[in-house]
Amino acid sequence: MDAAKLNNQIDAFLEMIGVERGAARNTLDAYRRDLIDFDCFIAPRQASLMAVEPKDIAAFAEDLNNRGLSPTTVARRRAALRQFFQFAVSQGWCSDDPTRLWDGPKRGRALPKTVDASDIDALLAAADRLAGWKAVRARCLIELVYGCGLRVSELVGLPIRTVGRLDVAALRVKGKGGKERLVPLGSHARDALRLWLDQRPKSLPDGPVRADAQKFLFPAKGKAGHLGRREFGRLLDGLAADAGLDPKKLSPHVLRHAFATHLVEGGADLRSVQVMLGHADIATTQIYTHVADARLTELVERAHPLAQRTRKNS
């Protein structure tokens, strides 16, 4: 298929799901890669992408499985193709949806990883051992991602205007699809913010990037003007190692999961947790009830006298 024509069709499709469905930038980028991957697979078999048949889709599904891709990745590629061909039919580019017979992968939903409150304390202690303003910034980052349940992209890109007042009780966060929500700030997070705002001017880079960096709560000298997701990930790895924790079991997303899990364990209602996390569907939030149940079961089996008696008798 002509590359320019294909790119135009993909652009039109991505524009539609971005505008009408509020798809996030990361989703749009992933869908583009998925569609190009399918076009590369189908090129030796078909002259035109719009002449694809269900048997071609079945061959692609088998190829994905043979590559050893995770069920989550396969499910995303299936979603990208199904939505693309449904859009293609609506635009008159093809007469039939060849993905209609592609069943979703059978997969159980894995429980999200989480950490104990003691692990958070260890991370904060490690942050305090850093030098100068970097220690204050590290504590503030952890307090916000764990204390507010922010996504890492939301955290590192927070505009400075979000915390224009030192007595702010909540953050206005722009999440997936540009949707805004208010996230309450606990006392520890507010204290960490106050300390960071005092130290923040020391972190501002010199040179032409300074003007852009001044717009963000966590400025940096990179092109974006703010701390990057990977940079925060590396910082967290270093803190975990210093705290005696396994860096492979920690990530910004794990701290977000810990925020939600600990709230549910503490008795928070799911609807409130859903709002704070920015989940569009409460079914996404319900996974944390299973995490809490699993942790409670582990606690009972480890600490209950009957469980201890069973281990002694075995």
From TrEMBL:
GO CC annotation: what is one? Answer: cytoplasm
* Active site, per annotation: R151, K176, H253, R256, H279, Y288
UniProt GO MF annotations? DNA binding; tyrosine-based site-specific recombinase activity
Q: Please state the protein's primary subcellular location.
A: cytoplasm
InterPro entries attached to this UniProt entry: CB, DNA_brk_join_enz, Integrase-like_cat_sf, Integrase_catalytic, Integrase_recombinase_N, Integrase_SAM-like_N, Tyrosine_recombinase_XerC/XerD, Tyrosine_recombinase_XerCD
Tell me which residues make up the Core-binding (CB) domain: 4-89
Q: Which NCBIfam families match?
A: PRK00283.1 (NF001399)
- PANTHER family linked: PHAGE INTEGRASE-RELATED, TYROSINE RECOMBINASE XERD
Membership in a protein family: Belongs to the 'phage' integrase family. XerC subfamily.
Question: What does this protein's UniProt record list under function?
Answer: Site-specific tyrosine recombinase, which acts by catalyzing the cutting and rejoining of the recombining DNA molecules. The XerC-XerD complex is essential to convert dimers of the bacterial chromosome into monomers to permit their segregation at cell division. It also contributes to the segregational stability of plasmids.
Q: What is this protein called?
A: Tyrosine recombinase XerC
Source organism of this protein record:
Candidatus Phycosocius bacilliformis
